[in-house]
Amino acid sequence: MIRAATVHDVPEIHAMIRELAAYEKAAEQARATEDQLRAALFGEHPAASVLVAEDDATGDVVGFALWFPRFSTWTGTRGMHLEDLYVRPRTRGAGHGKALLAELAAICRDHGFERFEWVVLDWNEPAIAFYESLGAELLKEWTVCRLTGGALERLAARAPRSAETAR
């Protein structure tokens, strides 16, 4: 079963984020706390939405998908960015990942989102094969860019701030 996450799911979502980070060989980078997730996902201004997959037999939460809207200047429409998709290893192959992605695609359709996008690590061949089997196109000509830490601070220090942009 796929359903919208509730605030009561935060401990399981947090645990799965940690599991995903370990799988992606980046456990030290997953620093979000349960309190941060609770505020970001269920606070006054939610930053993202989450679906969870439950095992039909046990009712256990076995996967999640965290997404948020984005906007394309080219199409003039909103789209969806999938930040994380994770299904616990012991339940993979039972259709939970496909069900999560199908529900996200239905949300896109229902909201008029023309694009549904996410990133995948180039070494994650099982995930790439899975996504391609669903018809996903891998955009090899695009490269993700990221600023963090000192580089982000150095660039921010160069900003010509005004009262209007400093909010």
From TrEMBL:
It holds the Pfam family Acetyltransf_1. Keywords: Acyltransferase, Coiled coil, Transferase. Residues 1-158 form the N-acetyltransferase domain. It comes from the Bacteria. The keyword Cell division does not apply. The keyword Transferase applies. Residues 13-40 form a coiled coil. CDD domains: NAT_SF. This is GNAT family N-acetyltransferase.
